[in-house]
Design a protein that fits this description.
Blueprint (H helix, E strand, L loop, with lengths): L5 E7 L3 E7 L30 E2 L5 E2 L12 E2 L7 E7 L6 H20 L4 E7 L28 E5 L7 H7 L1 H4 L8 E7 L8 H11 L7 E6 L6 H5 L13 E3 L7 E3 L6 H10 L3 E3 L6 H15 L4 E3 L14 E6 L7 E3 L15 E3 L7 E4 L1 H9 L6 E6 L7
Parallel strand pairs: 6-7, 6-9, 7-8, 9-10, 10-13
Antiparallel strand pairs: 1-2, 2-5, 3-4, 11-12, 14-18, 15-16, 15-19, 17-18
Length: about 400
């Protein structure tokens, strides 16, 4: 009996199904295979086995001659993407109360994500709490020791003084300090909490960010900032006992507490534009409790992480290893239509183009298979017509 490799099939027919059976070889769909070593450019790994190959009728040909790969169906679950979140806190002198709110809300924010089975990494750009406007994140996200609260890999704290206007610029300039916390294919969210306006424009920031790291394509921007401009005259007309009656963004002056003054320094117009451009979540800096805003932000991250066209890679049967250089994906629009090949995209999501394709979350150590947006749209459109995606392990990867 000739050696053989194993393959798995993942099929989406208004759901996703997993099949297990012997696989075809790199050069043909009708001969047996045995692989070892590092695999090809599509990924590392090795694989071996023994037996025949699957025939079109679903049986095994012990001679190893003829027949193609055939799935046996069993239910499988679509995967959930990890989430990388960069939080920037304005440490200017007017942000003392806001810094305390952020510190108090951070664990609740992360708990919403963890409860949704999302593997989250948080990167905080802010002074520590040795500064009144700084932040020290308590356990369990932080390590419970202040001001050095970092707890890798889930929580990285870049200790830096964030000014009133330079938060977005610091995201770019500190990138070398936190880039190692990013995961391939994780969803990306950038959030800022500030009472002032940015010194650089929205599109300028997006362009510079994508030039720095193309994997931020599709990132979401969230923010807690001033929703509108507040006139000192409007606040000044309020009674000192009820400053917010004139405008939610009016408050007592911090010096002597006898006047009503605008709480924010300026409207966050750039941040509004970033939220609109990226489909993010925004909240008002002028509210008394930030937790509801952080919860809304967390729900947005959850929605982005639970996306279609992401498939967990199942373990090999019998403890065998998967050769990730021998994976192919196909799409059959309907039962009476031929299967269409979907080619592997070596550059990952950033290299996906109008022709679509598929890629690994991490080519060096894959855990999930993902479809490019164009292919995902095609597959989703076929869910009501019996469309099927099949992923077969054991045949040499066809690269786009």
């Amino acid at each position: 009996m000739k050696p053989r490799a194993w393959f798995f099939g993942i099929a989406a027919v208004a759901g996703v199904f997993l099949g297990v059976g012997p696989a075809c070889t790199a050069g043909s769909n009708n001969s047996s295979s045995s692989g070892s070593g590092a695999g090809d450019a599509a990924g590392p790994g090795s694989q071996s086995g023994s037996g025949g190959i699957m025939l079109a009728g679903g049986g095994v040909d012990p001679s190893g001659a003829g027949g193609g790969c055939v799935e046996a169906a069993a239910e499988a679950v679509e995967g959930i993407l990890p989430a990388d979140i960069i939080v920037v806190v304005d440490n200017s002198g007017s942000m003392t109360d806001e810094a305390k709110q952020v510190q108090k809300s951070m664990n609740d924010f992360v708990n919403v994500l963890v409860a949704s089975a999302i593997d989250v990494h948080v990167i905080l750009l802010s002074n520590g709490n040795s500064d009144q406007q700084g932040v020290c994140v308590p356990a369990p996200l932080g390590n419970g020791s202040c001001p050095v609260d970092e707890k890798l890999p889930a929580f990285r704290h870049v200790m830096i003084d964030v000014g009133s206007n330079n938060g977005l610029e610091l995201v770019l300039s500190t990138y070398p300090q936190w880039k190692d916390s990013l995961r391939p294919n994780a969803t990306r969210t950038i959030a800022i909490i500030t009472d002032d306006e940015s010194s650089i424009g929205a599109q300028e920031f997006i362009d510079q960010l994508l030039a720095l790291d193309p994997s931020f394509k599709g990132f979401k921007f969230d923010g807690i900032f001033a929703p509108h401009e507040v006139s000192p005259l409007v606040c000044g007309l309020c009674q000192q006992s009820d400053c917010k009656k004139c405008d939610p963004c009016c408050g007592k002056d911090p010096a002597i507490g006898l006047l009503c003054l605008p709480l924010p320094a300026a409207e966050g117009k750039v941040y509004k534009e970033l939220v609109a451009k990226t489909g993010g979540v925004s909240g008002s800096l002028c509210i008394d409790e930030f937790l509801p805003v952080f919860q809304d932000m967390a729900k947005g991250v959850v929605a982005d992480s639970k996306i279609p066209c992401v498939y967990d890679i199942p373990p090999a049967p019998g403890g065998q290893e998967i050769d990730f250089g021998k994976v192919n994906v196909g799409y059959q629009p309907a039962a009476n239509q031929p299967e269409q090949e979907i080619f592997y995209v070596e550059g990952g999501k950033a290299a996906c183009g109008p022709n679509g394709g598929w890629y690994y979350d991490n080519p060096a150590a894959p855990t999930t298979l993902l479809l490019c947006d164009a292919t995902c749209t095609l597959v989703q459109s076929g869910n009501g017509t019996g469309g099927k995606v099949s992923v077969k392990f054991g045949c040499a990867t066809k690269i786009q």
